Amino acid sequence: MAKVLVVTSGKGGVGKTTSTAALGAALALNGQKVVVVDFDVGLRNLDLVMGAERRVVYDLINVAQGNAKLNQALIRDKRLENLALLPASQTRDKDALSEKGLARIIKELRTLFDWVICDSPAGIERGAMMAMRHADAAIIITNPEVSSVRDSDRIIGLLDAKTEKAAKGERVEKHLLITRYDQARAMRGEMLKKDDVLDILSVPLLGIIPESEQVLRASNLGQPVTIANPLSAPARGYNDAARRLMGDNLAINVPLERFNLLGRIFGGRAA
Amino acid sequence: MNFFGLFKRSDPLPATAPVARERLQVLLAHERGSPRNSNKMNALKEEIIDAIARHMLVKPEAVKVKIDRHAEVQILRIAVDIPA
């Protein structure tokens, strides 16, 4: 039975697209059939973070309007055969995505994949509402920072009000993913601790992704961090989060970089 | 001994995270209790009370105002005890 996830946050720049790519790849590495869907019409970037920007021919809106078939728009990942991308349109008006067209696409994607991961645009406008509309579960991306936590709270309220599940009187399953976490700063009282964020938002924790230079390095290369450097701290954080989504009961910790002394001595980078 | 204590600055900056936590708790308690129209409802409430006060002399405690919030609607109830 396919599961539709929305990756959302309200605030921009907290790591929705990075997390969508990393979790999608991590689920695929664990043998799941996954499609990541970019809902940021006009400002698409999931294609770029996934390294597929030169392979986009048709997009979500072409399919929604019936101008292309779903399998013409789906881009199969070159590294993982069970991972696909449905890109957003870069040129169309953001109102061009119809409710009906979207409902048909999501229904079809459910038959083809185990996981449909919808990468929401920032904000609480129509695009963000469309991304969450059909979600069975939401992953709320939050940085340990006041404006991000406030916006996450707002998004949690909208998930309980504006989704198809809410309309049927059901609840969207919610998971919190804390990104850009700096354990040392949190310990020094310079940054909200994971427990502060959890107390304030009251949403179960899916995982913690530490602040890491590996994330930028991966996006420079057009690779999800879970593919670019699977042993790095953020990749292990995302992989654990993916396994929790699959039902594994793993203890939550803050992954730390493992320093490779020999690698350093011989001039390589730490893993 | 705390592992991170080893790296503590000799003159540590004051912790700001507790301030962030406190500010968020106060703010969100307020925002969660205020749906989108609450400013409009409060303005309406005050104008209605003003209008009543222009026409009759009532004690402030004789005016009872209540806003019931439901998922789809809000109900504004105003009860004024008018002396016979």
Structural class of chain B comes to alpha+beta
Taken in chain order, the helices and strands of chain B follow as HHEE
How helix-rich are the residues of chain B, as a percent range?
Answer: 40-55%
Mean pLDDT metric of chain B: 75
- Point out poorly predicted stretches of chain A: none
Short description:
The complex is a heterodimer of chains A (271) and B (84). Chain A contains 14 helices and eight strands.
Overall description:
The complex is a heterodimer of chains A (271) and B (84). Chain A has helices at residues 16-29, 46-49, 60-64, 70-73, 99-112, 126-133, 146-159, 164-167, 183-187, 194-201, 213-221, 225-228, 233-245, 261-265, and strands spanning 3-8, 34-38, 75-76, 83-86, 115-119, 137-142, 173-181, 205-210. With 271 residues, chain A is α/β, with parallel strands linked by helices. By secondary structure, chain B is of the alpha+beta class. Helices cover 40% and strands 17% of the residues of chain B. Chain B has 2 helices and 2 strands, in the order ααββ. Chain B has helices at residues 17-32, 38-55, and strands spanning 63-69, 74-80. In chain B, β1 (63-69) and β2 (74-80) form a beta hairpin. The chains are: A alpha/beta (271), B alpha+beta (84). Chain A binds chain B through residues 145-146, 149-150, 153-154, 157, 161, 183-184, 186-193, 196, 199-200, and chain B through 2, 4, 7-8, 12-18, 20-21, 23-25, 27-28, 31-32, 71.
